[in-house]
Amino acid sequence: MKKASQYTLTDQLITRITAWIAGGIGVVLFIWGVITFWDLYKNETTNDAQVQEYINPIISRSGGFIVEVKFDENQPVKKGDTLLLIDDREYKIQQAQTEAALMNAQAQLKVLEVKIVTLKRSSQVKFARIAIADAELWKKELDFVRYKKLLATESATQQHLETVEAAYNVAKAERLSVGEDYEASVSQVEDAIAQKDVIKAEIKRLEALLERHKLDVSYTVITASYDGVMGRRTIEKGQMIEVGEILGYIVNRETDKWVVANYKETQIKSMDIGDTAEFTADAFPDKIFKGIIISLSPSTGSSFSLLPPDNSTGNYVKIVQRIPVRIRVTGSVKDVSLLKAGMNVNVSVRKK
């Protein structure tokens, strides 16, 4: 008599199905293991990598009260777009005062130029009087010499000679006075020319000061320096700000994005500038991005830290260091725009 089967038909069916499923899983795991092993054999990979791009602060170059804020968080902006306005009334008053001082100095320069012309003409007149005084002195000197000779021959009286001598002395004094008057007029012209140089220097100073005030007025309108996206907004209308204060951040979209992949020091021996790389972002695991290695750090990341480790100060424990590798993201604008600064990515570089 046959022994009855210990398993029913249903149990046998479940067993077979389970075996097939287990076998399929085993095959899948085997294939996955082979692919993973092959990938590790052919590529250097790391998940210690982040997307980077230039995030620059917006810094105030002028102090005062904010009268209007014209951007919101995460707002795209174009180069030249106005971001915020600062109260410019005080700066415009200073500019107006400097403009008035400049106009006054320019008017003084014109008056002085007219005065110089007048003084030069007066000096020319006085110079002409020198020739007249010389001629008069020459005539009086001849009279004096002639009367001295006449007195010697008793053809003239002593009184007449004394009169002629007095006229001769007066002519000499007149010539001296005219000469000194001319020299004084020349000095006045030179003084006026020197004053003109002083006023010209003052005009240049005021012009430079005016340009400075114009800059101060222009600094009250803060604009975007390039195309980008605004970051977090921390300011509001009516807030008092100081010169050099950070008012926000803007993400620069005019420059390339890059990935900083921190590879182990044992992984970079076959990497060179210009090698291609592939990576996936945690936010887009099914999308493969491409890039090109543009630089390798000249030092390990720990060497650039605020307090670099000094292994000579205590017990030494060897730790594998990491070398930052900079990879420029390539591809279409649409693909690149998906990546944001700070995103974690998994990078793979083919071994040579």
TrEMBL record:
Parts forming coiled coils: 95-122, 189-216
Main location as per UniProt: membrane
Membrane disposition: Single-pass membrane protein
GO BP: transmembrane transport
Domain CusB-like beta-barrel: 258-300
InterPro entries: Beta-barrel_RND_2, MdtA-like_BSH, MFP
Record-annotated Multidrug resistance protein MdtA-like barrel-sandwich hybrid domain positions: 59-251
Membrane-spanning intervals of the chain: 20-41
GO CC annotations, alphabetized: membrane
Keyword Secreted belongs to the record: no
Subcellular location: Membrane
Keywords per UniProt: Coiled coil, Membrane, Transmembrane, Transmembrane helix
PANTHER family: MEMBRANE FUSION SUBUNIT OF EMRAB-TOLC MULTIDRUG EFFLUX PUMP (PTHR30386), TRANSPORT PROTEIN COMB (PTHR30386:SF26)
Protein name per UniProt: Secretion protein HlyD family protein
